[in-house]
Amino acid sequence: MNEQVDQKSPGELSLPGLVDILGNINDAVWSFSWPELVMLFASPATERIYGRPPAAFIEQPDLWRTMMHPDDRHLADRIIEQLQAEGMADLEYRIVRQDETLGWVRDKRRLVYDDQQRPLRVDGSISDITTQKQAHEALRVLAESGNLQEQNVLAFLVGEIAASQGKRHVLIAEIPPGQPDLARTVAVCSDGKLVENFSYHLADTPCRNVVNQGVCFYPRNIRQLFPRDQLLQEMEVESYWGTPLFATTGETIGLLAIIDDRPMAEEPHNTALLKSFAVRAAAELERRHDELQRDLMISALSRSSQEMKRLAEVMAHHLQEPTRRLVTFAQRLRKSFSSDQESRESLTALDFIEYEAWRLRALVNDIQQYLSTEAQPPQAVASDVREVLAAEERRLAPRLAEINGRLEIGELPAAPLDVSRLQKLFSVLLDNAIGHATGHHPLLIRVSGESLPGLLRFKVEDNGPGIALEQRKKVFNLFEKLDSSQAGTGLGLAIARRIVDGQGGWIGIGESELGGTAVIIELPRRDGEG
Questions:
Q1: Which architecture, in CATH terms, is 134-295?
Q2: 451: part of which helix (H) or strand (E)?
Q3: What's the pLDDT score for residue 182?
Q4: Domain 15-128: which topology?
Q5: Other CB atoms closer than 10 Å to residue 384's CB: what's the count?
Q6: How much is the mean pLDDT over the chain?
Q7: Phi, psi of 231 (to 5 degrees)
Q8: Is 145 helix (H, G, I), strand (E, B) or coil?
């Protein structure tokens, strides 16, 4: 940096020296007269942001307003209003650069006053936030990819990364189970096009370092750093960025790599964005692995499953009657006891018998529910979800009142499930939310839904204790209870998953805006539904 220092005032910069410093700052600095807002000064960064030299803004006082996107020009008046009301303004808006490309800026201004507190001028800065906005848009698109099939999601991801980052090659690869030295691509975008997948050995490649060490970034000279990587040599590339893909267990199951023929500059917000893409890619790979394992298991058990199912159904049926009788006769016996000490001890024992009989009855009932929940094609006429939830709200009213709880029901699309299955699905989820309420604050349960292209998405969320990330898959297992002290059989969420799976849908656990658990359900949607 070439600082020009006034020799008469050591340590004090001259105006040319100050301009030189501002020229090395990415944000533009400018100053306006007040209240006319005629530009008095603009730093060199103005040209980097707008594509017009600072002199142009001095010569054309209204140029900053003219270069605002037509749909955002009304914000110029808001800047003036904020300055008048608060003495400062801070707004984001779009601009149309000299080359007619679209950009985003953050405009911050502050009134400067003289010794008598009279407005003197407006000083401010303008920041180019185009890349951040593009990143936010990419994440929005990424969130909307949830309605795509697995392979389409992975292809979508590599294409979106290549486009948003302006890079030549992007690939997602998996590490096949039991083959830690091999990588197999599942989606590759090269020069803006999806290309055929391939397998390659990890030895002597930057991908090996990614798998072993974590995120790796080589901004230049990648071929010189890995001379034995034949693929890099053939591609004639210059830079590389890669991140591992982790399963929920922490195991490395793949990697995401970006490769370009130019030096690559790493920016923190880009890194965060790419890691978000990586999380989504890892989720898709893990789902793929899980489905493969499930298919193998189903194939191995197919010959015996019908017999086992029939046996379980018969057992559940024959256990119902004894448990019903246990409860009935325990209640009859209770009436025959007096109020003496011996009778009170007997009543305590009887309470335990009755409680355990109820538990056994509930368990048998849930087993029957689970076994009876077969895969079922979507019914021709969709059911009204709001009506089902209104009935559930009436059923749960006494329990909610006891804990000062509340159920909020938002706008909900109709669902292609018969009423009985729909009722059972939401009954399980609502009972689960109430059963895990802490009592530290009033319970709030919110049910919402939306109709998206190709699917219906429902969400049941609460402000309860939530579920830890490492436990979110296991809660759908049979007889899984995270807290043994809680009531229930451990079959509720397994029943919910069975219902959703039977429709070809998906159910999972996420974070709730309310601070607790969010159960997300996605069901395939036919044309005309919603």
A1: 2-Layer Sandwich (3.30)
A2: strand 444-452
A3: 92
A4: Beta-Lactamase (3.30.450)
A5: 15
A6: 80
A7: -65, -45
A8: helix
The CA distance from 183 to 177, in Å, is 10
Tell me if 281 sits within 8 A of 254, measured CB to CB: yes
| pLDDT digits 0-9 by tens, 185-226 | 999 999 989 999 999 999 999 999 999 999 999 999 999 999
* Cα Rg of the chain (Å, integer): 32
- Write phi, then psi, for 336 (nearest 5 degrees): -90, -5
CB 58 within 8 A of CB 39: yes
Cβ–Cβ < 8 Å for 458, 520: yes
pLDDT score, position 8? 41
Band (7; pLDDT cuts 50, 70, 90): very low
Fold match flag (15-128 vs 134-295): yes
Domains of the chain by residue range: 15-128, 134-295, 376-530
Using the structure block, give the residue that is written with the tokens 């997948």: 197
Q: What is the pLDDT of residues 338-388, one digit of tens each?
A: 555 556 666 676 666 666 555 565 556 666 566 556 545 555 567 899 999
CATH number, domain 376-530: 3.30.565.10
Is-contact 482 475, C-beta < 8 A? yes
Please choose, from the candidates 425, 303, 433, 310, the residue with its C-alpha nearest in 3D space to the C-alpha of residue 376: 425
The Cβ-side half-sphere exposure at 385, using a 13 Å CA radius, reads: 23
Look at the alpha carbons of 424, 429, 435, 441 in this order and tell me if their dihedral is positive or negative.
negative
